[in-house]
Amino acid sequence: MKKAMISQPMGGLTKDEMLKIRDAAKAELEALGYEVLDTIFPSFDNEFGLMDPDHIALLHLGKSLEEMAKCDLVYFCEGWQDKRGCRIEHSAATAYGIKAMYQDR
Q: Residue 43 in contact with residue 63, Cβ under 8 Å?
């Protein structure tokens, strides 16, 4: 089965708002025959001790890129261009020939 991941801005959204957007993207991808990999990772705060928030984001980005290596497609949610992590994911997908799909809004 083809695999996909979702690249989604999360800053400024409540958990419920973020999950609503993600669930809609997941349904769209599943309708196209993709298995959607879970790229919502637990916080690393407790595992690594108190860290700078940017460093925690970098840990999450590393895990996300690890999952991207398993994917045939990355789905970019609205606003991806405005978030550093999403832009890095987009650059990586482009550089490594992973197909990109963009949320219609």
A: no
What is the model's pTM? 0.87
- What is residue 104's predicted lDDT score, i.e. its pLDDT? 80
Euclidean distance between CA atoms 47 and 102, whole angstroms: 34
d(CA 91, CA 69): 13
The SS3 call for residue 76 is strand
Half-sphere exposure (CA, 13 Å, Cβ side) for 10? Answer: 14
pLDDT of residue 11: 81
Distance CA 41, CA 28 (A): 22
Give the count of beta carbons closer than 10 Å to the beta carbon of residue 37.
Answer: 14
8 A C-beta contact, residue 6 and residue 77: yes
DSSP class of residue 82 equals: G
Q: Cβ–Cβ contacts within 10 Å for residue 43, how many?
A: 10
Tell me how crowded residue 20 is: count the other CB atoms within 10 A of its CB.
12
